[in-house]
Amino acid sequence: MPPRKIIIDTDPGQDDAVAILLALASPDEIEVLGIAAVAGNVPLPLTAKNARIVCELAGRPDVPVYAGCDAPIGRKLVTAEHVHGKTGLDGPDLPDPVMPLRDAHAVDFIIDTLRAHAPGTVTLCPLGPLTNIATAFTRAPDIVSRVQEIVLMGGAYFEVGNITPAAEFNIYVDPEAADIVFRSGAPIVVMPLDVTHKALVTKARNDAFRALATPVGIAVAQMTDFFERFDKEKYGSEGAPLHDPCVTAYILRPDLFSGRHINVTVETSSELTLGMTVADWWRVTDRAPNALFIGDIDAQGFFDLLTERLARL
């Protein structure tokens, strides 16, 4: 099997960084066509910078990085420095990137790439707000049918919200964009909080990263050391959930995950539940299924895969 072609759309973010590293560590299975930065965890100048820092950490300055949308569709940007720190990659002391941003806008890169490749051969992997993807779909509706699959981190059902009582951060930041994507008709796989909160970096798992004794292993351990403080205090959990690497792991090992093909609708008008992913888990409506909503993960298998791959960088 040739490697699967993907575009990573991201707002790094420590867990975004680990998701990118996992992809770049798996060239036999994944070909990263490019990275599209979007405003989310931190503003766009930082997410575009952080994506390049991660590429250089992986020894892959050849991977093209594009800056995308700097604000949601019709809303003010909400960021998450309270989780990820002022830079978005607080924890390790990583040098500023030398590799330049590519000149094109990330939305144009997404459109042009999907048009340039055969239909059904490029997978989109959004790790942050869906602004870039929705903007591309709106500007170029012809590309929707060319997408092989969208595997995204966002939303929640049983775990409800992490930025409001009802909403997960990525969807809440740009609910209109999420609504466009979920209504697009493209095949979608969703990694919600319901599954990512089961991918916890325990002390033993973080020690395994650090024991790699490589710049990548040490940096990942330091990232997790930093952002786990927030989740431990908030949830009383034994470690931080690695949300975004679940997307990459699904591309590599879908057998580690299980879920249901159901209808997922995004709330865009309610002040109370804005950004909620209304997932028809129990199939109680007649709304047609539009997404594979993941509900469970083999957490140890996930961390074994992650540690083994990071050791390659």
UniProtKB/TrEMBL annotation:
Domain of life: Bacteria
Record organism: Ruegeria sp. PrR005
Chain coiled-coil ranges: none
Matches recorded under SUPFAM superfamilies: Nucleoside hydrolase
GO cellular component, one term: cytosol
Keyword Nuclease: no
One GO MF term attached to the UniProt entry: uridine nucleosidase activity
Biological-process GO terms, alphabetical: purine nucleoside catabolic process
Keywords: Glycosidase, Hydrolase
Name of the molecule in the record: Nucleoside hydrolase
Inosine/uridine-preferring nucleoside hydrolase domain span: 6-304
